[in-house]
Each structure stands twice: as C-alpha cells, then as structure tokens.
Amino acid sequence: MALSDAFLTPLGFAALLVVIPILILYLVRPDPRRVRLPTYRFLSEDRRDVTSHPLFERLKRSTLLLLQLLAILLFATALASPYVPVSESSTVEETVLVVDTSASMTVESGGQTRFARAVGGADEAVTGTTSVVLAGSDPTVALRGGAPDEARSVLSELSATTAPGDLRSAISTAASIAGDGSRIVVVSDFADESAWEDAVRVARARGLSVELRQFADGGASNVGIVERSFSGDEVTLSLKNYGEASVTRSVSLGGERKSLSLGPGDVRTVTLGIPAGGGTARLSPGDDFAADDASYVAAPSDAVVDVLVLTNDENRYLTTALSVVDSVEVTVKEPPTSVTEEYDAIVYSNVDGGRLLQTNIEEGRETLERGGGVAIQAQEPMPDSYGDLLLLEPNGTGTNPTLRTPAEAELTRDIDFPPPEVYLTGSLREGRALVSTADGSPLIATAQRGNGRILYYGYIEAESAFKYDYQYPVFWKRAIYELAGRPPLTELNAETGGRLSFGNETTVETPSGTVTGASVPLDEAGFYEAGGTRYSASLLSESESSVAASDLDAAGNGSVPVREEERTVPDPLTEWVALAVLGGVVLEVAYLRRRGDL
C-alpha cells in the first residue's frame, strides 16, 4: 500500500529527519561521574539485588528518549495529513436547494400540484447549512447559508408563479454560491427547455454534487393559449393541443363564445371582439394546467379615440395617417366653426389665424381639463391666438438645420427624424423637447398640462419630406394614443415574466395585493392597475405550456444522470493526530516532573 493511500501529504514524514540530531545528542553526551558513598553502598547493593534487571534499567534510562521520538513521530504524521476514505454523501454539511417556481409547476394531479410535492422533497434535503435558490423568470436567492429552521420556514412560504422559468440560470446561481464540498439539490419537473443540463455538467465539473429530483405528474393532455395579437377592437388567440388525442375547446370573452377542434399537436386561432374595459378569455373545459387556460385582456372603457382636426387647408398626409390607426375616428372641421361634441384629442393644422375662433381655442383648453390632448402643427406664419397652447416661443425661421440626438421617449423610439428644409426657431415655453435642432429650437416637444397633454409638431408639412416616410404614420399613431391617454393594447397587455415600469414610485394593485415601486414584476397572471390605467399579464409561452416532461430516470433520454455514482473522498484525521501530539508532550512533561528534572 502506497503512503498516498492513507496520507494526503506524505512529504510531511520528512519531519522524521529531526530524529537524527536527537540520537546524535544522546550518543555524544558524557557519561555521568560516579561517586561512591560508603554509608549508602550496602543499602543500594542490597536493593538492587532484589528489584533491578539490566534490560529494565536500560529502558528506564531511555524513557525520555522514547517519549521524544514518539512526539516527533506523531508530529510528522500530523504533517502528512492522515485520512480515511468515506462516501461523499456522508461529508456534506452544506446544501443548496434549487426550487422550480415556474408556471408548469402548477400542474395538478391527484389533488396536489407539482410544486407542493417539490417543496416536500426540498424539505427532506435540508441539512445543517442550507441555501435556497428560486428558479423563476429571474433566479432569486431566497436564503443563503441558513439554519435548518430558517430553510424550512422559507420553503413553507414559497408559491409557484404563472411565469416562465429559467432553470439553467438558477442552477448556475446555485453553483456560484455553493462552497467546496456542497451539494446542490434541484427539485423541478424539468419541463424547462433551457439548456439546464449544461449548467449541471459545469457544476459537477467543479466537484460539486448535483442531485436531480423530478416531480412531473399530470399535464399529458394539456391544451393552452400560447399566443395572442391585437387588431383594432379584436384579439386573436392561438391555441395548441399538446395531447395525443383530438379535442374540442370553447373560447369565451365577454358575451362571445366560439368553438374549435384541434388534433394532436395542432395550433388553431380564434378571433374575438374585446368588450369595453376588457375581460378574460377562457378555454372550456379546463385541464390539469389552468395557467394557460385563460388570457387576461385589458382595454379602455371607451375603445374608440375621437380626434378632431381643425384646419383651413387639410393636410391629407396627416388625416390619412390618423384615419388608418386602429380605433381612431377622425373628424375634420374648417374654422370658423363651432365645436359642440367632446373629443379625446384636437389637432390644429394649417389654420388661418384670422378665421380661428376664440371658442376653438377654448375647446382645446377644455379638452386638456378632461384629460385629453392637444397637438399644434408648425406653420408660417404661426397664429398668435394659440396662446398658452403653443409650447414654442417663435422668433423667426431657419433652414436646413442639424438635428440633435432625439431624447429617449416612447414617442420617438426607433424613429429616424429627417432635418426639415424650413423650421420655426425659438425657445421652449414649457415641457420637454424630444427632438431639437443644433441651435436649440424644439422640433418635437411635449408637456403635461394638468391631466392633459400637449404636443408641438415642428415640421412645416410643405417644407418637409418626413410625410413621405413610412415612419410618419407610426409617429402619429403613437402621438394620438399618448395625447388621448390611451396606450395601445399591446402596451396594456403583457406576458408574465416581464416587468411593469414607471417613471417614479407608483402604487400598483396586483392580483395578490398592493405594492409600491418604480418597477413591478409580472410574475402573476391577472390584472394590474396603476394611476387609473388597467394592465394585464398572461402566460403566453409555447415552451412553458409543454408541461409533459421526459422521465429523467429513463434510459437513453440523452439527459444528465439524476445522481452521480457513489464516490469516496478523504476524511482527514489531522485534528486527532494533533491531539495525540499534545498528549505526548504532556506525558513527557509529567515524566520529567516525576524524575525530578522539573
């Protein structure tokens, strides 16, 4: 048997070389000088005849040397780090639990969800030091290095989300916080299509033990809503049948209901009208995975945006861009005219200042008070009667300017604004310039006026090529929705797993309660309300709805092993040998004291 089979650092036995100088000292030390005492001679000879033995006397004289040699041997053994081989599982003191909280874990079978079973499995894996990592849309460390009671308390308070998960990132996070010799236990259905196997292999390559515990009952016949799109006041839902048998499903929204049949693996679409204020589209009958049986649709209580264009020289490019916008109804009037109806937004374009009535200006101010919007398009000359509705303080005209980089805003996002040939120079009275020229003149500017919104559009249409750009109607669609305070349906309706962001701290009513923050995670499917605006979040994930996971224990499944082979690791005995060294030193001191040297 080689020394390495019992010692981690056999080089430590080099300390035995200290024995050589000690033996040399014992060999060269002078013999004691004998002095004969006549009065003691006869007594000592008589006692020696009774009790002494030559071999015993030699050993007695060498006892101190033997004790010293023993201490050196034990010290060298400690330096060599003796160990005994033990199974790796018996040495684990720290466990990192990875708990899958993704939507697929809400699949129900036998009256219990996968998540409930997984939490029970995680509870059994708790050790003396336990960390907990949640595998949701973003990995979260719920507990780091906690005691068993802390870990079990955290596990008891967990709940599954209705958002897609990222098991790969969660396992990588667990490996990053795991100490040497730690064990990672993953409890999941392993229906996640992310490359979590790679994360497991990387963790095991670091020497970490990774154990996979699968909970994947139910969900084999799932049918779910996997995608949706909006057009005008209608929503189109895509349904997919993940089962192996043909099924029929009814889809309802508001008072409308439609039925369709799906074969195994089929994807079918259905279009439904969106009721005022929105609603919940539901599949009937439901199945084991309820999260994708519903799609929440948020919509304004009044779906139509009424826009009034006041003009004495109609801008066909503008009115056409507005009329093709979904849910926008455009009315064009020529001053002088009276306005008796209420509009969500008013656009002043190419107006003859001499014919513009004061009541037309007052109508703009009243629209702002009602929470609507007013837009004024630049023209030459600019009427003086606009008053405080005009954000620009004009002082002349300029030509062929250089434009500054547009400010970050939803209104200007991904739009390339060309420089105008002619523009109005001046300064901004209030609000924010989103697009401006090199001399500081605003070209696109917005301002909040009470509950309403004002837009200054600085392109003089006859002197601009922007009206020919395909992004021109995109800009006006965004502008009208913003002026009317009506975000498009695509902004009101999101997918779970994202975030709802605001400019500042905002109180948000979520499906599970009220929270306050500048950003709120959309981990729950349902309706969210903030600042009088209603939003929705729905699970729309084809991969997450594929809840039937392959059995990890099945042979040839191409996955990583559920558990690694049993391995033996060294359990060092250094501390015990060190105690033996200390015992040898104490024994030597006791002997010297008994002999009278101390």
TrEMBL record:
Keywords: Membrane, Transmembrane, Transmembrane helix
Transmembrane parts of this sequence: 6-28, 64-84
Domain DUF7407: 223-296
Source domain of life: Archaea
Start and end residues of each DUF7406 domain: 486-537
Domain VWFA: 95-190
UniProt-listed InterPro entries: Aerotolerance_reg_N (IPR024163), Class_I_gatase-like (IPR029062), Double_TM_dom (IPR011933), DUF7406 (IPR055829), DUF7407 (IPR055830), DUF7408 (IPR055831), VWF_A (IPR002035), vWFA_dom_sf (IPR036465)
Domain Aerotolerance regulator N-terminal, residue spans: 6-82
Ranges where the DUF7408 domain occurs: 306-479
Pfam families: BatA, DUF7406, DUF7407, DUF7408, VWA_2
NCBIfam families the record matches: two_anch
Name recorded for this polypeptide: BatA and WFA domain-containing protein
Organism the protein comes from: Halogeometricum salsisoli
